[in-house]
Amino acid sequence: MQTLVDRIKQADQKAYRELYDMFNIPMYNICLRMMNQPEDALDVLQETFIKVFQNIQQLNNGQLLPAWIKKICINTALSELDKKQKLQFDDLNDESVLYSLNSEDGVIDEFEHESNMAEIMNAIELLPERYRIVFTLYAIEDYSHEEIAQMLGIVASTSRSQYLRGKQKLLEIIKKNKQHVRSIKTIYTTA
């Protein structure tokens, strides 16, 4: 990675393309999960790479390049979301989070088909924005609640509650979709 960073710092055009080709798909996936719209995701992706290329001189350790790009990408997406509309997060209060581990039984089996991952990703797209963002940052991008709280300007307990509520909502969406598929199969098999 250090060699690639050094080549970019020397304005090697091929190095710019190599970096883009190496990171555009994973960063686009992050953008899409954060923005939930392909057009918005492409805009954020473009802005991310502009910032990366403008600020590459500040990166002293090439081994940090993947994490550095990811951080720029997420911060760019959050900034864009903030511009579009102020993100609203529910504070943790006396109302309990309606989450039960029993509700996960039979919903997601990690060792089933790959179609489960597509089903989960589709369900994530249906989450309300505040849940989708926290869920994505925590469950997919592996940020801690403390890091998420700092990025979003909230407290860690709010991040935790948004994650749990998002997870509960995600399970409800998946269950509802499975029931819908079963009822369609029943209609076609009895007809």
UniProtKB/TrEMBL annotation:
<keyword id="KW-0805">Transcription regulation</keyword>
<feature type="domain" description="RNA polymerase sigma factor 70 region 4 type 2">
    <location>
        <begin position="119"/>
        <end position="170"/>
    </location>
</feature>
<dbReference type="InterPro" id="IPR013324">
    <property type="entry name" value="RNA_pol_sigma_r3/r4-like"/>
</dbReference>
<comment type="similarity">
    <text>Belongs to the sigma-70 factor family. ECF subfamily.</text>
</comment>
<keyword id="KW-0238">DNA-binding</keyword>
<dbReference type="GO" id="GO:0006352">
    <property type="term" value="P:DNA-templated transcription initiation"/>
</dbReference>
<keyword id="KW-0804">Transcription</keyword>
<dbReference type="InterPro" id="IPR013249">
    <property type="entry name" value="RNA_pol_sigma70_r4_t2"/>
</dbReference>
<dbReference type="InterPro" id="IPR014284">
    <property type="entry name" value="RNA_pol_sigma-70_dom"/>
</dbReference>
<keyword id="KW-0731">Sigma factor</keyword>
<feature type="domain" description="RNA polymerase sigma-70 region 2">
    <location>
        <begin position="26"/>
        <end position="85"/>
    </location>
</feature>
<dbReference type="GO" id="GO:0016987">
    <property type="term" value="F:sigma factor activity"/>
</dbReference>
<dbReference type="InterPro" id="IPR036388">
    <property type="entry name" value="WH-like_DNA-bd_sf"/>
</dbReference>
<protein>
    <recommendedName>
        <fullName>RNA polymerase sigma factor</fullName>
    </recommendedName>
</protein>
<dbReference type="Pfam" id="PF04542">
    <property type="entry name" value="Sigma70_r2"/>
</dbReference>
<dbReference type="InterPro" id="IPR013325">
    <property type="entry name" value="RNA_pol_sigma_r2"/>
</dbReference>
<dbReference type="InterPro" id="IPR039425">
    <property type="entry name" value="RNA_pol_sigma-70-like"/>
</dbReference>
<dbReference type="GO" id="GO:0003677">
    <property type="term" value="F:DNA binding"/>
</dbReference>
<dbReference type="Pfam" id="PF08281">
    <property type="entry name" value="Sigma70_r4_2"/>
</dbReference>
<dbReference type="InterPro" id="IPR007627">
    <property type="entry name" value="RNA_pol_sigma70_r2"/>
</dbReference>
<dbReference type="InterPro" id="IPR000838">
    <property type="entry name" value="RNA_pol_sigma70_ECF_CS"/>
</dbReference>
